[in-house]
Amino acid sequence: MKPTRPSAAQTFLLVLLGQAAFLAAVYFLAAEPLGAALWPLAAVAAVVTLLVWGALQWRLGTAAPASAPAPAAEPRPAAPPPPAPPSDEAALHLLAIFQRKGRLIDFLHEDLSAYQDAQIGAAVRSVHAGCKQALDEYVALEPVYAEAEGATVTIPAGFDAHAVRLTGNVAGDPPFKGALRHRGWRVAKVTLPARTGTPEAARVVAPAEVEVG
């Protein structure tokens, strides 16, 4: 058990009682009556009392055990840096390839209301051929489901909602059974050619063509 330290009032009272006992002993044991010398003696005793009390207070203060330092707070982990904004250069590069191979941007910006269906079909053939060539050359695709469309498939619990979209009467919890209406597509590999030029140049997906002369 940790010993308690006496308070300042307690030490002063002890010193005062000791000095009072000393004065009483001097008074009763003196060979002659003290008379007028009693008051100077009492004043000296009072000064000695204060000095002894102050010395005891100082001694107790220096002898007091130092308080244990407060435990250092654990450093907080540094916040992770914010993710870098996604770069759009790869998407622009692929869009430029579709334009170069199949004139995709020109076709999408064309007003088709003035053409007959047969005319549109003929134009679509060249766009389809050029864009398919670009896709086959630079982007490897694979179906999400290998089964043929129309086949019955089972959707297990914990399925990837990004890879499978459920339609129809969806109720309860998986597993579900249903007819495969679209096999889906997943990118297996992208092998775009190296692009040269500045980031500003990447935004020009189709340069203007000027015939001179």
In short:
It contains six helices and four strands; from the N terminus they run H-H-H-H-H-E-E-E-E-H.
Structure report:
- With 213 residues, this protein is mainly α.
- Helices cover 44% and strands 8% of the residues.
- The strands form two sheets. It has a two-stranded antiparallel sheet with strand order 1-4. A two-stranded antiparallel sheet has the order 2-3.
- The protein is elongated, with a radius of gyration of 49 Å.
- It starts with 7 loop residues before the first helix and ends in an 11-residue tail after the last helix.
Keywords:
mainly alpha, single chain, elongated, 213 residues
Average the pLDDT over all residues and give the rounded result.
79
* Oligomer type: single chain
Determine the fraction of residues in helical runs and give it as a percent range: 40-55%
How widely separated are the two ends? 107 Å
Q: Point out poorly predicted stretches.
A: none
What structural category arises from helix and sheet content? Answer: mainly alpha
Shape: elongated
Number of strands: 4
* β-sheet strand percentage: 5-15%
- Side-by-side strand order of the widest sheet: 1-4
Total number of helices: 6
Order of helix and strand elements from N to C terminus? HHHHHEEEEH
If you compute it from the alpha carbons, what radius of gyration comes out, rounded to the nearest whole angstrom?
Answer: 49 Å
Largest sheet: 2 strands, antiparallel
Task: Lay out the secondary structure.
Elements: H1 8-29, H2 38-63, H3 89-102, H4 104-108, H5 117-138, E1 139-142, E2 152-155, E3 176-179, E4 186-190, H6 199-202
Antiparallel strand pairs: 1-4, 2-3
Helix pairs in contact: 1-2, 3-5
